[in-house]
Write a structure and sequence with these properties.
This is Integrase. It comes from Amycolatopsis keratiniphila. Keywords: Plasmid. The chain is of the alpha+beta class. It has one domain: Phosphatase 2c, domain 1 (4-Layer Sandwich). About 30% of the residues lie in helices and about 20% in strands. The strands form 2 sheets. Strands 1-10-9-6-7 form a 5-stranded antiparallel beta sheet. A hairpin with a 4-residue loop joins β6 and β7. The longest helix has 16 residues.
Length: about 280
């Protein structure tokens, strides 16, 4: 079994708001949501993702607990860690979550918000991701895309977009993400595949997905898995960074910020009949 990962902040000197960890049978990737407004919390997104990730790992270690149950318990546990904060504030720290667990002859998954799980099951490539967040505030997103990164107009448009996006967060017709309410896990994408069918897999935050879905550096997800297998997640993320640097103000590829935190996990080993192995 070959198993490796990489994570990198979007900007040097700024804490990485992504979080990644794995055990012999479990992968967890979190992507903290960018803050552009008040939050009612003084701890910040990196603190939130680290506490949430530790809680998920602890809870999902028990096969008696479902993946969504482990996520719900972790959300509740983190809420209890900072009762002095306004956790009902619409901007309270939040994170997308992707969880994979090997269970005997099954590979189970749970995805909340825009973490992407890519599975090579031999006859096809399956991509699991919840894109509902990108479908909110569509008019405001289009307006923000008109302006270059770093401009005052861009910043003003992004704040307007964020307010509209937060108004749809964890509400029917909007999108669902881990924040302070454990009940959101009922909206997660969940499922399973036969363990023997999985040839290789990847779990990526949306900053890493840019290589395929924004910059077109990689033509499809099969090619992305090939690159991850041949070159490793670090070079996969580096290719995205080079594309970001080549278009620093978003003139060719309009986007909210030049670089985003990026995390990529790759596992391979025939049919994954053995355990995932330790995170490299």
């Amino acid at each position: 079994m070959f198993f490796t990962s990489a994570t990198a902040p979007g900007k040097t000197g700024v804490p990485n708001e992504d979080w990644v960890a794995a055990t012999s049978d479990l992968i967890v990737v979190l992507d903290g949501a960018t803050i552009r407004t008040d939050t009612g919390c003084h701890h910040g997104v990196p603190w939130y993702t680290r506490k949430l990730g530790a809680g998920i790992i602890a809870g999902a270690a028990s096969r008696a607990q479902t993946l969504t149950g482990a996520l719900a318990d972790a959300i509740s546990s983190v809420r209890a860690l900072h009762p002095e904060c306004d956790l009902d504030h619409p901007g309270t720290p939040s994170a997308a979550a992707g969880i994979l667990r090997l269970e005997d002859d099954k590979l189970r998954y749970a995805v909340l918000a825009d973490i992407s799980i890519v599975l090579d099951i031999g006859s096809e490539i399956v991509v699991i991701s919840d894109a509902r967040v990108s479908q909110t505030a569509s008019a405001e997103r289009k307006e923000a895309d008109k302006y270059l990164i770093g401009s005052a107009e861009k910043q003003e448009a992004l704040v307007a977009m964020k307010h509209k996006e937060l108004a749809a967060r964890n509400k029917p017709g909007g999108y669902w993400i881990a924040a302070a309410d454990p009940n959101v896990v009922s909206h997660a994408l969940v499922g399973e595949y036969p363990r023997s069918a999985i040839r290789r897999l990847a779990v990526l935050s949306d900053g890493a997905v840019r290589a395929v879905e924004m910059f077109g550096l990689i033509k499809d997800w099969k090619t992305a898995l090939d690159m991850l297998e041949a070159d490793g997640p670090e070079k996969f993320i580096l290719a995205t960074r080079e594309a970001e640097l080549a278009d620093p103000v978003g003139q060719q590829h309009p986007r909210n910020k030049r670089s985003d935190d990026a995390t990529a996990v790759f596992a391979s080993g025939g049919s994954l009949l053995n355990s995932l192995g330790e995170l490299a």
